[in-house]
């Protein structure tokens, strides 16, 4: 088992014919993911290696039975591509695109919440279920199958921590990058609730960062609903208050939302918090070895 | 992107939010001309991206030409909590009967727009919250259905504002929401929202933040520049499309992805070093972006060593290595670099660095090792 | 039993302080309906006879526990009043107002469909459950308790037919005017499905009219899902094609939507269709008497 | 409210839907002046609220001033399927490479806006549907999220239009939806949607219907009048806010509520009579409305008897009775009236009528009885 993506994933990629889309799409295909289609308006009928390209997501779904969509188009076209995938009946949309206007995502989020399509991202590295499917830009060769579920707001930090755990000989059920934007389709809680019911996952690692109150609310959720051990990492202890650190996800506002406040909230609910990626990896390994 | 008060007010006016008459001025002469045109009394207001202008002496009433001249001279060039005043806003004076507080912002928790109203304006929202948390009424708006009349009524009635201005304050909130939506704002704040002696409703201040990702839809806003609003390095970085925040230390930091860069700052700090900056070269950093980034980092004279911490996903380590080699070819680098490459094409990247054998570039395998090394080299 | 409104209905009336609002609100109160509140912005704290008035629907719900709202405000304020009632957590909103712009109702309809609030109307006479509650403008003294469920797109036609049945000694479980506008909150199907599960209702009478395809779709629904006998009436046999007859609900477009086509569709599914209100009443009575 | 072609095109132009240049004309002189200004060739188009203008000779190409004069003279005053031509639209001639069909309308079944596109334009949509039902692509739009680019692409690709115009046709559909929303339209239809020889996309015709209930938001549209577009009685009724449709018979009908009035027409027809009109006095009919209604009904010279069929809900029978008494005081009524009052305040109403003892007014208890009586009296 694993969550969200696996051997049954049939992937359609919006923006497959672009440079990055082709590079990562073929990477995903070569990993073993069923990449069944691409969508690029006006390029219907073409192919990217073995992958057929369609003019619309609706055509792609009708012809290939795609059930998962990856969005790789530039920011100003991303909201439209997500809505198109949802309208075409795709159950899971994973949006890699960075720099989408927050108001676009706000409308998309409220719209999707009322339907049957789950969104992961945007501004995320995607989802990897080692040995089963890789959808996105996570460098899969660092990771192997295993029982650690990993969920993170930061892409590169995900690789860093996942990789440290892997170097100690452990693998992952699924690695989910939820993205660091102010509005993302899936929250820590959404993903952790799936890990909780996934039989393969025995330990959950979450990587948060400053800004918002996601981590604080997740702490409450874990205390109430999660039976599996959770190890957390929070980035941004050194961030000065009031300064923007990269994406808008990292704005410290007032007293709440700091790394220290988040770490404290998690520890108060019994979640172990590592101070560096290495310490997180050590805590995880110690817990797994019992 | 934060806007100055008068820039925000110009957006307000465009969307029908009532604001007092005024004109911007960059010199004493312009200020006097503005005063003459508007008619006295006027208020001379420092335009800086920081609160507390009034207490700092940056807002002064002028009842004639001589006073405008005197205040403009005093305020232009003034330092307000680290920000130099380069611009003034000369505004028709308003008489104050009541001061309220109003704001529209994106509530990250609910992932919805939130409208706020309080009858206690003229002080910081934090101060209001401290004095009486119930005095701030908050209402979520469904962005697909928009701000309805009932939202305005509910805010106005629950905030307990004066009965005779319930309707115009509700109408102003609707226009404020319209501004927020139309301009892709993450925040619009009016403090104080003024009720004048003749019971008119006016936005006396304007704090507006526009989503940088949406600026392509607002070319006129994108062109607004705040002289002196940004640090030299930060301005250079912004022009090159890099996310850079200056800090107080001496270790230059570059990473890819905000989370990893923040984590790098933390690890360097834990190793006893002091980061000189936050620099996220972004997803898919290309060679040119690396050259730009090195220039920005080294333009800070405090920097005594630089740490590159790259874990490649969409970023390819070979491109980063090539960028570093190009940068060393173009720039006279005088401080040591510690480079850690992991992830996509990391072997190629390390090979490129090994072959280039750049002076003072140390390659480290782990993040903790790299942090320890750069702290040692920074001295 | 009965459907939608009954002894547990706690009614708040938007527009209670207006002339018609007061007249019909007090009529409803005098009938025995629990009219617990009115909403008129700026008149909070006043009373209409014994009924307290609030500035907002939220205040009314908080103070009185109102669960049903009747909208009696002018057309340009009606959409806002419906949305306010829904936002305040009201489960059933009955909108009497006529002449609301269709685009307003289109947005309201799509918004409510995704939430927990049921809308009946607009441009409808309301709902009467004889002996239990009357919400709206139906002249209740014509009707008594009984086992005929009546649902209609037309207000006055409802009274006409209900009255003819009453004169033959039969009563009604509930009389529901769904309204004749192009977009109404509840359809024939919505109401008939409730009559089907209401133990008090033994016979269902539906009154349709030309325009749209509601009656045709209802015929299919009845054939598939309804076990109770249904008698139908369709108004507009004499309407010339292409002419607007009153509200937009009565536009005949092309071959479909005519009274003849609707009557035929219903009869094809075994629904008895009366040619005049009197004939409908006779058919109903005959069926009831077995 | 139906708009004439050129009125619809003016709304299109306002919202960025491309239309050919043109000018309206009510006289031959205006038509010639328009031709001179636009430049030849032009098309002289009859402006009437009915299809089939081309076949009826109401659309003519003019290659010079003399031809404009000749065609304008012929078309002005022409009768097209019962509609007199009072206005012309003089339009720059377009060269035709392809003719498509596009429309946005409110789908009552789904309760959603629906966008339609077909590559087979220039004929009635019914004709397209008959020839090839698959040639009409239909897509529902969620009005809360609006028309997205993907809707336009989907319509364009699935309709199989020429590949080089996929993008501009999609863009036109988006503008058409914008028009539909902004103007509170129930229908906007473009047939043909033209692709010119130089591959420009143009709305060559415009059929626009605006929701009468929303006209208060569109005062400029509400003021558009179509001379000759309405029957005399219908115009009189519209001015008084009554819903009146003229029919061919001799029995004047007034009722309250569209359903009851329709049913009344049916019952009168079944009783062997022929209704002269449909008149819904509306919910809550007041005495003045009744006076107005009586005037409108009697202004039709064919009427030989009148049936009032009232079942009071929001309408109060006493007000109807008072209105009838007032009307008889103001108007010289020469035909018999049959009145049936039931529902709210019916007894008071009947008492008022009994006391007034109006000449030729017969009160009946049942709808069927009233219908039979009026048929008998109408002769």
The CATH H-level superfamily of the largest domain in chain B is Succinyl-CoA synthetase domains
CATH homologous superfamily title of the largest domain in chain A: Succinyl-CoA synthetase domains
Instruction: Give me the CATH fold name of the largest domain in chain B.
Output: Rossmann fold
Report the major sheet of chain B: 7 strands, antiparallel
Q: What is the makeup of the main sheet of chain A?
A: 7 strands, mixed
Q: What structural class do helix, strand and pairing data of chain B support?
A: alpha+beta
Q: Could you characterize the architecture of this molecule?
A:
The complex is a heterotetramer, with two copies of chain A (290 residues) and two copies of chain B (379 residues). With 290 residues, chain A is α/β, with parallel strands linked by helices. Chain A has two domains: 10-120, Rossmann fold, CATH 3.40.50; 143-289, Succinyl-CoA synthetase domains (Rossmann fold, 3-Layer(aba) Sandwich). Chain A has helices spanning 19-31, 57-64, 75-87, 102-113, 155-167, 188-197, 214-225, 259-268, 277-288; strands at 10-14, 34-39, 47-48, 51-54, 68-71, 92-95, 118-120, 126-129, 133-136, 145-152, 172-177, 203-209, 230-235, 272-274. In chain A, the strands form two sheets. A seven-stranded mixed sheet of chain A has the order 3-4-2-1-5-6-7, with helices on both faces. A seven-stranded mixed sheet of chain A has the order 9-8-11-10-12-13-14, with helices on both faces. Chain A starts with 9 loop residues before the first strand and ends with a helix. The relative contact order of chain A is 0.12. Residues 245-255 of chain A have low confidence and may be disordered. Chain B is of the alpha+beta class and 379 residues long. Chain B folds into three domains: 21-92, Dna Ligase, domain 1 (2-Layer Sandwich), CATH 3.30.1490; 96-222, D-amino Acid Aminotransferase, Chain A, domain 1 (2-Layer Sandwich); 232-378, Succinyl-CoA synthetase domains (Rossmann fold), CATH 3.40.50. Helices cover 37% and strands 25% of the residues of chain B. Chain B has 13 helices and 19 strands. In chain B, the strands form five sheets. In chain B, strands 1, 8, 9, 10, 11, 12 and 13 form a seven-stranded antiparallel sheet that branches. In chain B, strands 2-7-3-4 form a four-stranded antiparallel sheet, covered by helices on one side. The radius of gyration of chain B is 25 Å and the shape is elongated. The model of chain B has no long low-confidence stretch (mean pLDDT 92). Chains A and B meet through helix 4 and helix 5 of A and helix 9 and strand 17 of B.
